[in-house]
Design a protein that fits this description.
The protein has 423 residues and is mainly alpha-helical. It has a single domain, classed as Glycosyltransferase. Helices cover 44% and strands 5% of the residues. It has 14 helices and 11 strands. Belongs to the glycosyl hydrolase 63 family.
Length: 423
């Protein structure tokens, strides 16, 4: 077995709780929603049964309204280990927020690794309910797009795209940040940002989780991943002998609404539902529509990705924020660093749109950087230096997946272009 694969497998084994995988033992000691989906992509190569167990455990915590909570709390973990913990949310063993819907694609991948029709049949109605919740309860703008009600729901918690809408949210006080016990303050959100996150989460909780509150943003990354998930759900339906047209139509409607509402000047921007204005920050979320295979504007979006704002192919991974922006910070949470899950998703998009050499280059860089940083949570796109926690589960899992699929790319006769030393 490849040494890097062995090391990645050891990370996943070390973070396994018996029914699910924590992102990391210290900083994130519970089960996170989209983390588990990414983890399943790697586990399917190591233990398809564990991949299925990971996803079943997550969906066992699904709410009656269809939402899949962004955290499922481990009862064996001390309450003081993470804030905000279960006592904050008043929702039993889960939080009340959600995260991007990458789960259908993960369920399909787990099935393809080791076909299990019973697994598909059990998860399909849960996925349908999950997507249904998003398409109905979260269509705050009435344009057919999902709105997130908290930055944490984007998965890109500290993105500069949320700064403007967060100005409407006052600061919370009197809480203890547990994250700073496990990470460098320079890598994490500021105290002011965190205070707004806590106040917004508390207001949503106190409303009885009634959508929509003071923060409502149509995020291009979230909506692109939902459209892709609908395409995956169509494939699952076909595997089960069920009608699939409704899922493909839902994906097409989302894609159309994104291009009509969020696309401008070669990029997909987030939109503040309350003001109706685009939030003109170039973040990696605006590149995620590349995962859609029929995206009409893909050539223009690839041009933006390879241009000066992101320099894809000339830096490590995919920067989370515009390299030319005054607020770019190569080490602070979602304000510049490259994340492995984003790079993995963008690689998929590049393959869809015929950018095979660039996809192979990105794959090789992701694998090498993961190994060199001890499977860091995120990295400086300019130097490749690791930031955040180490032995991070989705970094390890997606490394396993990329190593397993490397032969497919090489089978196309692709070679990796050398990156310049200066980046």
């Amino acid at each position: 077995m490849n040494v890097t694969r062995e090391r990645a497998a050891a990370v996943l084994a070390g973070n396994w709780l018996g029914a699910s995988t924590v992102p990391s033992r210290g900083l994130y000691p519970h089960q996170w929603s989209w983390d588990s989906a990414f983890i399943a992509f790697g586990l399917r190569h190591l233990s398809p049964g564990r991949a299925r167990r990971e996803l079943r455990t997550l969906f066992a915590a699904q709410w009656a309204d269809g939402r899949v909570p962004h955290i499922v709390f481990d009862p064996a973990t001390p309450p003081e280990a993470y804030f905000p913990g279960p006592s904050f949310w008043h929702a039993g063993r889960t939080s009340g927020l959600v995260q991007p819907p990458v789960h259908a694609r993960a369920v399909l991948a787990a099935h393809e690794a080791e076909p299990d029709r019973e697994f598909l049949a059990a998860l399909y109605p849960r996925l349908v309910a999950w997507h249904g919740y998003l398409r109905t309860c979260r269509d705050a703008g009435g344009r057919g797009l999902v709105a997130i009600v908290h930055p944490w729901e984007s998965g890109m918690d500290n993105s500069p795209a949320w700064d403007e809408p967060l100005t409407r949210v006052p600061l919370a006080t009197g809480f203890v940040r547990r994250d700073l016990e496990h990470g460098d303050a320079g890598d994490r959100p500021s105290d002011d940002d965190y205070g707004r996150y806590v106040r917004l989460a508390a207001a949503y909780r106190d409303s009885g989780y009634q959508d929509i509150g003071d923060f409502a943003v149509e995020d291009p990354g979230f909506n692109a991943l939902l459209a892709d998930a609908e395409l995956a759900l169509a494939e699952i339906a076909e595997e089960l002998g069920l009608p699939s047209d409704a899922h493909r139509e839902a994906a097409a409607r989302l894609e159309k609404a994104m291009q009509e509402t969020l696309w401008d000047d070669g990029f997909f921007f987030a939109r503040d539902v309350h003001t109706g204005a685009l939030i003109r920050e170039h973040t990696c979320a605006g590149l995620l529509p590349l995962v859609l295979p029929d995206l009409a504007v893909a050539p223009a979006l690839v041009a933006t990705a390879t241009g000066p704002r992101f320099r894809l192919g000339r830096v490590h991974g995919v920067p989370s924020y515009d390299l030319t922006a005054p607020g770019f910070d190569p080490g602070r949470y979602w304000r510049g660093p490259s994340w492995f899950n984003v790079g993995w998703l963008i690689r998929r998009g590049l393959l869809h749109h015929g950018e095979f050499a660039l996809a192979a280059q990105l794959r090789d860089d992701l694998v090498e950087t993961a190994a060199e940083t001890g499977f860091a949570e995120y990295v400086d796109p300019l130097t490749g230096a690791g930031h955040g926690t180490r032995s991070f589960s989705w970094t390890a899992a997606l490394t396993v997946d990329l190593l397993s699929e490397a032969s497919c790319d090489r089978g196309r006769g692709l070679r990796r272009p050398e990156l310049s030393k200066g980046r």
